[in-house]
Amino acid sequence: MNLDIPDGKDPIQYAWGELVPGIGPAASNLSLAVYAHTTLGLREFEAARLRIAQINGCVFCLDWRTERDGRKVEDEFADAVAEWRTTGRFDDRTRLAAEYAERYALDHHGLDEEFWERMTAHYTQREIVELSMCIGSWLAFGRLNHVLGLDAMCVLPKP
């Protein structure tokens, strides 16, 4: 579906702000907070974010690379995320972040004791909650933008 955007309106600002003024700015604040306040390392953050982008098919999210202190992941990183099970480019935390993102999106009922044992061996409870909130944000908002045809112009409004 593509929303009917009035001429001269920014599609994202219109959809996220004008159409739903009681919800859109709050959603935007959550989306922005995930980037501004994360304590996760760049590689695990991007592994989870990109895996959700791959699952959602969000055009903007697939092209976006998070930058921290002038650093981004290498160009081949997205390909490695798609092959998280077999790539030799990831440490345990990065591989688990990609796995968790995929399972969170596609098989959250299948997160069993074996998975949680591996996850808690590498992540604190605080990090798991933070990663879960990040994944939830990307899953919801990347999917929303893709489903509504906004993802080619995805620039979230500043609150």
TrEMBL record:
Pfam families: CMD
Membrane spanning residue stretches: none
Domain Carboxymuconolactone decarboxylase-like span(s) in chain numbering: 28-102
Gene3D superfamilies hit by this protein: AhpD-like
InterPro entries named in the record: AhpD-like (IPR029032), CMD-like (IPR003779)
PANTHER family: 4-CARBOXYMUCONOLACTONE DECARBOXYLASE FAMILY PROTEIN (AFU_ORTHOLOGUE AFUA_6G11590), CYTOPLASMIC PROTEIN
UniProt-recorded name of the protein: Carboxymuconolactone decarboxylase family protein
Originating organism: Actinomadura chokoriensis
